[in-house]
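Second attempt. The first submission of FAD-binding FR-type domain-containing protein had a stray character pasted in from the spreadsheet, which I only caught after the job came back as garbage. Lesson logged: always re-copy from the clean sequence file. Corrected sequence (433 aa) follows.
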Amino acid sequence: MKMKVISKGYLIIVILALLPVARWLVIIPLKYRFSNFYNSATSIGQLMSLPGMVLFSLNLILGSRWKFLEDLFGGMNRVYIAHHLIGGLTLILLIFHPLFLGLSFLTVSLNRAALFFLPGENWAINLGIGALLLLMALLILTFYVELPYEIWRFTHKFLGIAFFLGSLHALFIESDISRDTILRNYFMVIIAAGTGAYVFRSLLGKFFIPRHRYLLKKINPLPGQITELEMEPVKESMSYLPGQFIFVNFISAKVKNEKHPFSITSPPSERELKLTVKSLGDFTGNLKLLDTGDAAEIEGPYGRFSYLNFTNRNQIWVAGGIGITPFLSMARTLYRLDFSICLFYSAAEQSEAVFLEELLGIAAQNPNFVVYTIFTKTQGRLSAEIIQATVGDLANFEIFICGPPPMMISLKRQLKRLGVSKDRIHSEEFQLL
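This time the job returned cleanly.
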């Protein structure tokens, strides 16, 4: 069931990206499009641009955080994985677009081919050059430069400008899009959808995106550079499932005006909302400086990483370090539910397993909840073989994993090698949010 949900989103992307290609193939007979080197290079360049612009638009939609996207991909974290992948593919296609068009002019001269890449009198071409250069700069910053979060977030706003310039280029350059009514109308709809998503999220989000306002009630410092924040709602409390996450922006001069994702650690039955944060950078390190009474704007909840989303009641939870946070909310709801859960809690040493005592207390009152600890400094790293040796055959379990990215990647590979189906392995990749 899970794989079908995930595939649905990608299937829609593939169909939408290939529809203009299908139309392009029947506008002019292929024997004319590929009759010589000039026509062949030009045609390949055109073929790169059609799905490239569609994917550019769809990527703006993927970054909008609209809730229906979670249903298509199986969770907001998976939406952002798709956003990351589609962004890279968009760049590749749109780079090859002018490269092949430039190659076609080699039949004239090398100098003519080189001049193709420079701005000239044709304003539509100049718009394309500007859009591509801006897109290349932004995606290089995303993939290859480790920027502070607030700078990275600021640069992402310029994607809308690159898309706007590229859209004008696509609609007004003399091409199959300008000559064929069906292609032109299709791209006008696609461009309108991408523009709408960008405007909604980046320009009008503060007016139209629902947010919950909470006030900071308690700040509890915990061992291991961890801080627990307890907040109370200004009006009604937010509804959520255990294991979901939210985007939070704290209104305080002591922290930067940024939205960051955090797992909710309180159970949904409580009016107060709790977050547990480890100091991993400037923003999270400064959260302990907040004062009681400070306001927080909350967007969400998001995510499908909840044991309640699955009918299989035999589950394995694997937490690495601060990756215990989504499991805290889930464990705190187990008193009244008939699930059989094995939690593997991995930490460097016992002092860093700051919630172990509470989890063992829950296990003492619920015989179907068992906690296993792995302290890597003395016992080595947790492996799929250790999990299998502890609980037996893994084939009939739903397995949830949250922790450092290398740990999650490694465990998922190991579990697949042991024959565990992909659709039974669920993870929360916060680094992609």
